[in-house]
Write a structure and sequence with these properties.
46% of the residues lie in helices and 17% in strands. The chain is α/β, with parallel strands linked by helices and 423 residues long. It folds into two domains: 3-178, Rossmann fold, CATH 3.40.50.10860; 196-345, Rossmann fold (3-Layer(aba) Sandwich), CATH 3.40.50.720. It has a seven-stranded mixed sheet. A five-stranded mixed sheet has the order 1-2-4-3-5. The longest helix is centred in the C-terminal third of the chain and has 26 residues, at 371-396. Bound molecules: nicotinamide-adenine-dinucleotide.
Length: 423
């Protein structure tokens, strides 16, 4: 087992973490037992098993999930991930976090998530397309522009969203662009969506730096993961003049205390499929990368990377969670005790769902905005959300994660109370 997963294995699953975090907030908000029960469990959990024709002529069965956690504040919203280890429990946790994430940035959605157990790195484009189309068809009873709107997540991108949009539209008999977000621009995608999560992480870091009196031009930044989130965040942060000193993908990491040329590294990764062998930098493992001395650490790969085991060795002032659930509760305690400032995932990486919301709004009205307008609106929402969480933390004397959760859960509770219980 790789080093970076050993600590995570000894600790809780994402679902247990989500539940623990919810318990803490429910206690802080003194939620009544019945409200806790409503918010604790997903509203709907769909498991689908479906066949896909492989290139060699065989037929392989795949398992997929779609979970809607809560829809009190609006339609369910959440990405779809393709990964060999994805489980229903993980998808349930991610759906719950989506409910809180949409609430913390104040966009009118509930939370959902989807996943398919598969290894797209070992599949051809044709196999991935057939899997995507069949999965879409299997979950079509839940998704729709007014009910549940998927988006990209781990190992899915605009390409898969195009296939999902087309499959759903074929079943309806007319084009339904608003059924998914993160689509290609040619079919109703939004300007700025591809780098929206990374841009949101950047806005959150800039706002944190303002509050902490840090000069980003003097800061050293380490980013774990150079996919959609980490790659865009590293690129945008380096363009603001900050020094990116460490970067990694799933197989390898690179380090240069004088600063890395991010554009060059992204090009190298694009051409070679890996960071392995990149010249002009020292090679580090993912475990070593997380412990590099820096001012800002951005875990933007997968969950449970900062654990009770490695948290005492992390040498940063700020952790900005680009990924969902990269820090375990044990690690949270250690980071808090050590005075490390945390920008929690539901705040830091909410830029993606925020621009997804813009995309959906544009699709519904068939009126499209410029990239400048998108970025300006995103900055406004991210900055306000950061200040709301920061002020909640100060007023209630809470750490930033608890403050974000308190703010988010109280907004969902308000919506639940205002709607009442049917019938
Ligand atoms: P991605 O597939 O584009 O990139 C993931 C990156 O992490 C890649 O560089 C990959 O090599 C690396 N990685 C994978 N496994 C790793 C491991 N075991 N150790 C170290 N690195 C590893 O995915 P993404 O869309 O950038 O998503 C990354 C994280 O951000 C996920 O937790 C996702 O849920 C979260 N997130 C994504 C979005 C979005 O808009 N894409 C929005 C919010 C949150």
């Amino acid at each position: 087992m790789p080093d970076h997963q050993r600590g995570a294995q000894a600790e809780e699953s994402s679902y247990e973490v989500a539940q623990q975090q919810f318990n803490i907030v429910a206690d802080l908000l003194e939620l009544a037992p019945d409200v806790r029960e409503v918010l604790r469990y997903p509203k709907r959990e769909l498991i689908v098993h479906f066949p896909v024709k492989m290139d060699d002529g065989t037929v392989k069965m795949f398992t997929g999930f779609r979970v809607q956690h809560n829809i009190a504040r609006g339609p369910a919203k959440g990405g779809v991930r393709y990964h060999p280890d994805v489980t229903l429990e993980e998808v349930k946790a991610l759906a719950m976090w989506m409910t809180w994430k949409c609430a913390v940035v104040g966009i009118p959605y509930g939370g959902a998530k989807g996943g398919v157990i598969c290894d797209p790195k070992k599949m051809s484009v044709g196999e991935i397309e057939r899997l995507t189309r069949r999965y879409t068809s299997e979950i079509a009873l839940l998704i729709g522009p007014e009910s549940d709107i998927p988006a990209p997540d781990l190992n899915t991108s605009a390409r898969e969203m195009g296939w999902m949009m087309d499959t759903y539209s074929m079943q309806k008999g007319y084009s339904v662009p608003a059924v998914v977000t993160g689509k290609p621009l040619s079919i109703g995608g939004s300007e700025g969506r591809r780098e929206a999560t990374g841009r949101g992480v950047t806005f959150a870091i800039q706002e944190a730096a303002r509050h902490l009196n840090m000069d980003l031009l003097d800061s050293k930044i380490v980013v774990q993961g150079i996919g959609n989130v980490g790659g865009a965040a590293a690129d945008l942060l380096s363009r603001t003049g900050a020094k990116i000193v460490g970067l990694s993908d799933s197989k390898a990491g690179v380090f240069n205390s004088k600063g890395l040329n991010v554009a060059e590294i992204l090009r190298y990764k694009n051409e070679n499929g890996t960071l392995q062998g990149f010249p002009e930098a020292d090679a580090v493992t993912n475990a070593e990368l997380l412990e590099l001395p820096c001012d800002i650490l951005v875990p933007a790969a997968i969950q449970s990377q900062i654990t009770g085991e490695n948290a005492p060795c992390i040498k940063t002032k700020v952790v900005a969670e680009g990924a969902n659930g990269p820090t375990t509760p044990q690690a949270d305690d250690v980071l808090n005790d050590r005075g490390i400032f945390l920008i929690p995932d539901i705040l830091a990486n909410a830029g993606g769902v925020t621009v997804s919301y813009f995309e959906w709004v544009q699709d519904l009205q068939s009126l499209f905005w410029s990239e400048e307008e998108i970025n300006a609106r995103l900055e406004k929402i991210m900055t306000k959300a950061f200040r709301d969480v920061y002020n909640t933390a100060r007023e209630r004397k809470l750490d930033m994660r608890s403050a974000a959760n308190v703010l988010a859960v109280s907004r969902v509770v308000q919506a639940f109370r205002d709607r009442g219980i049917y019938p």
